[in-house]
Amino acid sequence: MKKHVCCLTSNVGCRRSTQPKFLFFVAAKRQQGILFAAVLFFCLLSACAGEDADPAALKTYDFGRDKVPSITAVVGERTVTEVASEGKNEFPSKQYTYQSNSVADDLSQYTQLLQEQAWTTTGDGYNLKESPGSAQFVKESADNGQILILFITYEENQYAIKVTKLEALIDHT
């Protein structure tokens, strides 16, 4: 047996109907609510990914508790041509590739800041006057038993900065 429902908001009076119209209104409002919740979720998700929002203006490269100063924090905005991430959990790595008309000057200022912040050069060092070239720096992580490696490759009008977090210790002897 079908129930008959009266619309309480109507001045016309009670009509017998097998499908009340107010249920369609409730269903439509529920769909709008679900859609609103989905849009809100994706907006919040993109806001939490703030560092990827504008890589040309980053102030730090973030690895959990470790905050590595970005090159743009030192030399100002540069054109970012590529952003790549690898190894999300075990050995996270991020690489940013920049275009610049002043590669040697940019990297000279940046490597000076790194050394002032206790980053150590590894290998045979580097010569920013020779292009192409590379430089590698290492520093202990804020997390025990882990280190950060910052690898810079450069050529005439661009450079790439790759930061990797690894489980390792630095031998200070």
List the topology elements.
Blueprint: H1 21-48, H2 50-53, E1 60-63, E2 66-69, H3 71-75, E3 79-86, E4 93-99, H4 103-116, E5 120-121, E6 133-140, E7 146-155, E8 158-167
Antiparallel strand pairs: 1-2, 3-4, 4-8, 5-6, 6-7, 7-8
Structural commentary:
This protein has 173 residues and is an alpha+beta fold. The chain folds into 2 domains: 1-48; 54-167, Protein Transport Mog1p, Chain A (3-Layer(aba) Sandwich). Helices cover 29% and strands 31% of the residues. The protein contains 4 helices and 8 strands. It has helices at residues 21-48, 50-53, 71-75, 103-116, and strands at residues 60-63, 66-69, 79-86, 93-99, 120-121, 133-140, 146-155, 158-167. The chain has a 6-stranded antiparallel beta sheet, with helices on one face. It has a two-stranded antiparallel sheet with strand order 1-2. The longest helix is centred in the N-terminal third of the chain and has 28 residues, at 21-48. 16% of the residues are buried.
Summarize the structure.
This protein is an alpha+beta fold. It has helices at about 20-50, 50-55, 70-75, 105-115; strands spanning about 60-65, 65-70, 80-85, 95-100, 120, 135-140, 145-155, 160-165. It is about 30% helix and about 30% strand.
Quick tags:
two-stranded antiparallel sheet; 2 domains; Protein Transport Mog1p, Chain A; 173 residues; six-stranded antiparallel sheet; alpha+beta; single chain; 29% helix; 4 helices
